[in-house]
Amino acid sequence: MDRELAPEIVNRSRRKPWLIGLVGLFCLAGAIWGLRSWLKTSVEAGKIRSAVVQTGPVENTLSATGEVIPAYEQIMTSPIRASIRRVLITPGARVRPGQSLIELDKSLTQIEFEKLQDQLALKQNSIKQLRMRLDKNLYDADINDQIKSLNINKLTAEVEDTRRLLKVGGQTPEDVTRAETALRVAQLEKKQLENDLSYNRRSMGASLRESQLQARIEGTNLKVLAQKLRQADVLADRAGVLTWVNENVGSAVNEGEMLAKVADLGSFRVEGSCSDAYVDQLRVGMPIVVRVNDTDLRGLITQIKPSVQNNTVRFGIALDDSRNASLRPNQKVEVFVVTARSPKAIRVANGPTFRGKRKQHVFVLGTDNLARRREIEVGLTSFDWVEIKSGLQPGERVILTDLSEYEHVQEITIAK
């Protein structure tokens, strides 16, 4: 015997075909919408950016970064070991030539200076004593030499007298021999005395010169220390701005340790850096463009640092207009190194549509609100301009916005 189905089962079976139909309708609508989106060939005019093709110079550039630094910056170091007693000028203040910046405690160096003065005075006194001894010894030797000369004269006379007496029988040959021997001994003693005198004169002169040289060295050391004491009065030698100072009052500083920096903010230079992948393309004398806000300044590479740090190479830049009002110390700027230049080329403003390929497609705007796809060949490229080797003519307008999603179509309608 058949039983009647429950009402909820009957209603569910009736709704099922409708649900399947609605799901299928939604899927069909989604497919149609996706197909229309894929085949969409129009874009709103407000969403695109375009530029007119023109004729002008184009420079091929390498992108780099830079930092503006003063063209002249004096670094002041401590000439002695001392401690900081007072800081007289704060960073950022302007300084005048001869103005004191830091006061150092120079007491220990002053004591050493006085010690060297005493040592020099002692050495100079010893030189005087040595000279006096030399003079006395030379005088005594000279007197002894004169005495020996007199004695030789006397013995010479005695020898002659003895020889005369021998002829008349008043002396024996032995007496003549003794007199001649005494004369010979006196002559040898005089020669020995003269040799000693010459040696003493040379040796004592050498000792005197050695002492004088030592005194001269100590005198030079004293002058050097006196100069360091004068330099310990940390003074600015030209007008500028104090950019940094050691403000640790009471701290000890060693000889050669930096105390302050004074910069001349009237002129500037740029310290540039770029990837070491471009190091083979960099040359001293290459032109560069430094972009400071909206101002482009020209210059040249003056120095390339030999070392590479953190995969970057650094180089110095001299600006043609180093006193430009837009330059500020420690300012970060964009740097473009010019590697090639075409003075008169067909060019268009650089934009996202140019992706670094030599041959590519761009959309060119027509007068009928249509943008047509065209193949072009790209030459030199800079941050601002792209050289067009072929495919475009001056006066045509190119869409710079990236339209890679429309690569499947040949024309795009520009909807106003």
| Number of strand segments | 19
- Please identify which CATH superfamily of the largest domain we are dealing with: Efflux pump adaptor protein, beta barrel domain
Low-confidence stretches: 34-39
CATH topology of the largest domain: Elongation Factor Tu (Ef-tu), domain 3
| N-to-C CA distance | 74 Å
Strand content: 35-45%
CATH class of the largest domain, please?
A: Mainly Beta
Question: How many DSSP H or I helices?
Answer: 3
Give the assembly state of these chains: single chain
Shape: elongated
Q: Mind summarizing the main beta sheet?
A: 6 strands, antiparallel, barrel
Query: SSE order in H/E notation?
Result: HEEEEEEHHEEEEEEEEEEEEE
The strand order across the widest sheet is 3-10-13-12-11-14
The domain count comes to 3
- Alpha-beta content class: alpha+beta
CATH architecture of the largest domain: Beta Barrel
Could you report the average pLDDT, rounded to the nearest whole number? 82
